[in-house]
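ok so i was messing around last nite and threw this chain in just to see what happens. nothing serious, just curious
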Amino acid sequence: MKFPYLALAALAAGSAQAQQTSYPQRPVRIIVNVSAGGGVDSLARITGSHMSAVWGQPFVVDNRAGAGGSIGNELAAKSTPDGYTLLVTSGTVITSAANRTQGPQGYDPVRDFQAVTRLTSNPYIVCVTPALPVKSIGELIALAKTKSGGVSYGSAGNGSIVHLGAALVASMAGVNMVHVPYKGVTEVYPAVASGQVDWVIGSPISALPLIKAGRMRGIAVTSAARARAQPELPTVAESGVPGYDVVAWFGMLAPAKTPMVIIDKLQAEAKRALQSPEVVRRMDVEGTDIVGNTPQAFAAEIKAEFEKWRGVVKKAGLGVQG
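result:
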């Protein structure tokens, strides 16, 4: 009498597999943990529009801003892992912000998500005030060791990626630098340009116009390799801080335990969406690299980056979640 049960189980398994391979069969929600507009939202809409055209089902962007991205993240993490809820987020929110001391998170960035793909990435630029007599990271570190009152760096707030990225430079170089937090980059850049603070890590799209205007001086990029858009700038790593690597990235994730057959389909189409000539041209202008790596590679990156920022946060005295 056991055979009918085995047959039913096999039939159910076959039906589930068929549903996964024929995915999607209904509308898909893409949660974006920031308000409409900006890089994360734009990438979600680019990939969603492409997938809608390919698969004939709506991929609808659902902006769930608030609590530094935690509201959208938690909603995605607790959704049914069937491929019909996705999350497009930034590394700032999913790896570094998850380490802040703002009460317990309702999700774990490593345990509760299945990586789909890193969509794009771009380095930051180390920008110094024109009045500062340094033209390299090595000279900045040397100045920090000798300048009365020390060297200061600005950020967009405690625990922001701009703060942690700068703190990592100081930590890896073995020097003390003074952190001066602001409410956002719109306040940081004028402070650097006027000499109120000595340096900042800036995003290319917002910092390059000020660099070209001579209001700030770019001395290095923060990625492991030189940036295609600024090949003349050395990396922080080659300028005296070996092993330093900090980039801004946007990626797509799904709730943990989403079937890999669905994850693989999503990764392949997300990569194709970013390879259209129009998107490539736009990313080139913004100094952004298109990635589209495998789910396995992206998952390893998320885990490594989360642990890296955990250490930086702890050393900076900001506390660590969990």
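not much to say yet. The chain has a mean pLDDT of 88.
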